[in-house]
Amino acid sequence: MPDLRTYDYIIVGGGTAACVLANRLTETASIRVLMIEAGPEPTSPWIKMPLAMGKLFTHPVLNWGLYTEPEAHLNNRPIFWPRGKVLGGCSSINGSAYIRGKAEDYDGWRRLGNTGWGWSDVLPYFQKLERREDLHGSSTNGKGMVTVSYPVYVSPIARAFMAAGVRAGLPGGNDLNGTSPEGVSLMPYSVRRGVRQSAAEVYLRPARKRRNLVVETSAFARRLLFEGRRATGVEYERDGKIHKAVAAREVILSAGAISSPQILMLSGIGPGRHLQEQGIAVVLDAPGVGENLHDHVAATCTYGTAPENSLNRELSGLAVVGHAITYYALKRGPLTNGASQATALARGLPDTPCPDLQIVFRAMSYVYDKSGRIAPDPIPRVTGGVAYVRPKSRGRLLLKSADPRQTPAMNANYFSVASDEDGLLAGVKWVRRIFQTEPLRSLIVGEDAPGDACKTDDDIREFLRSTSTTFCHPSGTCKMGQDHMSVVDERLRVRGIESLRVVDASIMPALPSCGPAPAVFMIGEKAADLIKEDQSSGAVSMANGAAASAVSIRS
Prior knowledge:
The protein is α+β, with helices and mostly antiparallel strands. It has 13 helices and 28 strands. Helices cover 25% and strands 23% of the residues. Strands 1, 2, 11, 12, 13, 14 and 28 form a 7-stranded mixed sheet that branches. Helix 1 runs parallel beside helix 13 (517-537) and helix 11 (418-435) crosses helix 12. It starts with 5 loop residues before the first strand and ends in an 18-residue tail after the last helix. The relative contact order is 0.19. The model is unreliable at 544-555 (pLDDT under 50).
């Protein structure tokens, strides 16, 4: 009888890229894969309902509910970072927006020495994973795993926002996943027939029928195991007991931009002096682990409307019960929507070669109740949010202690580069311009935030420092590249360590100029091919480059 704790591959994490890997690697029946995920099964009814992301944003069980350290340039405010703690990871709790990004984003990765990651290299993977629909719901590419569709329920005021955007100077009607993604459009969603297309739903669920895949939930990874400089397995906690599993081929760290660097550090891979200060034996002095942390900083503008022009009253009381019944019976109505009905990709800073802003329109607004959870706004309002999507500010993630259960210290260092604040200021001006343009202007009662008192650039800057928050896109903490701060090479192998890869948003040298979710699906697909190629060629799965002396941690 084989050792049931030995597998060919161990995937640490159960988020977006992890689910893709679990599916693709187990397509070969002889390959045995273990996935361990700290969160539970995705059984909550809120997960499948796209607009229920508000219920998941602060969910005490399905969300890690992280906070940054006080951000110096945001008036020393800690910023709330929701992160999925469930199979499917953030794809199970996010706003379902699906925009790939621009060719320039990925060509920029390639210019940093990451061969195979330019736009021409990654586009086939996007095309492979997508099942695309047009504005009328007709299939334009019916082969992929993730359905990319458009809202089937569109508020009249959302159409007014798009018309106003065109009159304000934006191109209209463009496919934001096309060759020239710029302008205003309905928001592309990862939604199929009203159901969220999480990675757990579209990749993991069909793969779990295979006997060569084992998925363990509520399994908390504590550290990786090594023999010299070779990763051999993982130690994790489940049901109050410590377990160890062995990987005959590779350990694949796919725990996300926060947990992946944290697990590396807890395992002895990271900035050597910092690890020693925490009492952790250094396996590899890797100064780039936890560095390059960055995010899309965002501002929220709200506008009062007549009650019939806001969905707020439809999302509370008996009205939302009726919509819930319609949703579950027919998959129709506003609950089929993602977080935003419409969006615009625009240019903010002078001489920017391509759009550097993403504006989103929501025919609703929200507030926080006394317990800190999101609740419907009792006042009829709509929202114009904007993010600066080409940030230069970089922060870092560090351990607070050697206790795996303690959240690391995270600092995105928002606005530490002045152009990021300048860009977001330009974004607020774009939002105001659109809302002051017909046919939207006639549907607005007044601007509640920033408000009429916020007139000058200095006023807007203070508004940004006092209220800016996250677009929920922290990334980059195990970056791919060729310099001494790069953690993984272009095949996602951890430099200086055998049989260990990182496959998630942490490997991005720079965020795409949009939400990273589509790129993480793509990274999972491409990584699966890289792993299969290396295995078939017999290549040693260790990145070339500077390797430090290693201390063996035996299981």
